[in-house]
Recover the amino acids of this structure.
C-alpha cells in the first residue's frame, strides 16, 4: 500500500505495531523487509554498503569522483574476442571518443525477435538506424538518411542516420561528449520481414557482481560515414582500430584502477610447454590435444598412491571412513551382480578381479572426496537410476563417473 499522505512527519507508532501502521511519519518507504528504504546496505550486496558512482566497463570519461574508474567488484572475462577500449584519460581512449547507448522502441516488442517477423509492426519501424545530434552529424559528415558505420573494440555495424535534437551533447569537465543512440530490435533472420545489423554486437561481456547482469546500455565507439566493410575487410577494419587504441586482453580488466596485479581469476595463464591452462582446477575426464589433468595436488597424490594386491584401502587411523567406503563398494558390487544375474556371494575368498574392482572404485571415491570438502553422501544412487548414462573411456575419469 502507499504511504498515507496525511501522516505527519512527527508521527510515532505505538510500540509493537506491525505492518504499514508501524511506520513512523518520516519512514515513507516500504521496499525492504523492515518497511524502510536502505541507503546503507548491511547485507546482501557484494559492492556495498553505500551507493556510489562508477563509470561503465569502458567509458571515454574519467570518473569525476575518485581514482577508481569502474566497479572493483565487477566480473570480467579477459579474452581475445572480448576486448575493451581504454577508458578515461588512458592512452588510446580518444580512438573511441563517443558513447553509444541501446534502448527499446515502442513499435517493437522485446528484442525484436518476434516483432520483426510481423508485417504490421515491421512497417512502423522498417530499418535499423542510429540517432545522432546535429553537432555530431556536422563533425563527422553524416547525412540524414545516409549510412553510418559504428565501431567498438569488438566489431563494427552499419545503420541509417537519424539526425535529431533528442541526442543532446553532454559537457563533462569542460569536454563535449557526444552520444549515439542505437535501438536493439534488429538482427539476422531468414524469415524476418525486416532485418539489419544488431546493436548488441558492439557490446562486450562484463557482469554486475550481485545479479550477474551484463553491461548492455553503454560503451565507447567511433562513428564514420558510409557502410561497413564485410568479410576479411571487416576484421582488418576492427583490428586497425584495436591497434591504434593499443587494446589488449587485459585492457580495462584491472579490477582496481592503477593496480595491474588485481587481475581476475579468469585471466589466461600459460603452461610451461606453451599450452593454455584453465585458471581453476578442473578434473579432466578425457585425454585430448591441449588437455591435461590439473586437479588439486591431493588428488594427484591419490592417483599416484600404490596399491598392493589384497591390501586394505585407506588408513588404519580412520576406520570409520574406511568402513563407509567398504559399504559403498559392497553396495555397488552387489548392484552390478544383481543386474548381471549373478548370485550374491555370502562368503569365501574374493576373486582377484573383484579385489581389483574394489580398489579401483575406492580409488575413485578417494578422488571425489578430495575434490569435495564435505565428502560424498553415504548413499550413492545406482548408475541405472541416473537420467543420463554417459560412457567414458577407460581410466580415471571412467571410475569417477561410475562413483
Amino acid at each position: 500500500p502507499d504511504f498515507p499522505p496525511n501522516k505527519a512527519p512527527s508521527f510515532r507508532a505505538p510500540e509493537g505495531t506491525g505492518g504499514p501502521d508501524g511506520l513512523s511519519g518520516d519512514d515513507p518507504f516500504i521496499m525492504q523487509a523492515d518497511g524502510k528504504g536502505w541507503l546503507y546496505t548491511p547485507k546482501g550486496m557484494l559492492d556495498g554498503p553505500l551507493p556510489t558512482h562508477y563509470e561503465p566497463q569502458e567509458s571515454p570519461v574519467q570518473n569525476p569522483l575518485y581514482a577508481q574508474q569502474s566497479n572493483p567488484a565487477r566480473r570480467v572475462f579477459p579474452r581475445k574476442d572480448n576486448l575493451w577500449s581504454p577508458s578515461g584519460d588512458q592512452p588510446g581512449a580518444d580512438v573511441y571518443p563517443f558513447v553509444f547507448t541501446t534502448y527499446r522502441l515502442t513499435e517493437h516488442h522485446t528484442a525484436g525477435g518476434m516483432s520483426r517477423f510481423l508485417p504490421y509492426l515491421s512497417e512502423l519501424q522498417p530499418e535499423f538506424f542510429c540517432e545522432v545530434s546535429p553537432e555530431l552529424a556536422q563533425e563527422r559528415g553524416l547525412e540524414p538518411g545516409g549510412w553510418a558505420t559504428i565501431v567498438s573494440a569488438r566489431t563494427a555495424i552499419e545503420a541509417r542516420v537519424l539526425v535529431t535534437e533528442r541526442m543532446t551533447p553532454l559537457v563533462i569537465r569542460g569536454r563535449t561528449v557526444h552520444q549515439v543512440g542505437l535501438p536493439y530490435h534488429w538482427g539476422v533472420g531468414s524469415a524476418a520481414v525486416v532485418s539489419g545489423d544488431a546493436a548488441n554486437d558492439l557490446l562486450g561481456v562484463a557482469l554486475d557482481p550481485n545479479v550477474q547482469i551484463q553491461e548492455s546500455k553503454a560503451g565507447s565507439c567511433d562513428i564514420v560515414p558510409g557502410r561497413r566493410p564485410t568479410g576479411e575487410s571487416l576484421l582488418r577494419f576492427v583490428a586497425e582500430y584495436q591497434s591504434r587504441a593499443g587494446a589488449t586482453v587485459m585492457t580495462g580488466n584491472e579490477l582496481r584502477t592503477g593496480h595491474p596485479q588485481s587481475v581476475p581469476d579468469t585471466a589466461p595463464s600459460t603452461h610451461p610447454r606453451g599450452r593454455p591452462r584453465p585458471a581453476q582446477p578442473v578434473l579432466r575426464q578425457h585425454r585430448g590435444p591441449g588437455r591435461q589433468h590439473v586437479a588439486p595436488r591431493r588428488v594427484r597424490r591419490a592417483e599416484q598412491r600404490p596399491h598392493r594386491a589384497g591390501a586394505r584401502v585407506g588408513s588404519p587411523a580412520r576406520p570409520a571412513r574406511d568402513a563407509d567406503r567398504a559399504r559403498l563398494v559392497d553396495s555397488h558390487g552387489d548392484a552390478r551382480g544383481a543386474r548381471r544375474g549373478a548370485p550374491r556371494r555370502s562368503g569365501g575368498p574374493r576373486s582377484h578381479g573383484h579385489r581389483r574392482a574394489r580398489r579401483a572404485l575406492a580409488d575413485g571415491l578417494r578422488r571425489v572426496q578430495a575434490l569435495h570438502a564435505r565428502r560424498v553422501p553415504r548413499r550413492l544412487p545406482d548408475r541405472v537410476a541416473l537420467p543420463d548414462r554417459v560412457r567414458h573411456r577407460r581410466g580415471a575419469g571412467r571410475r569417477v563417473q561410475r562413483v
Observations:
- The radius of gyration is 31 Å.
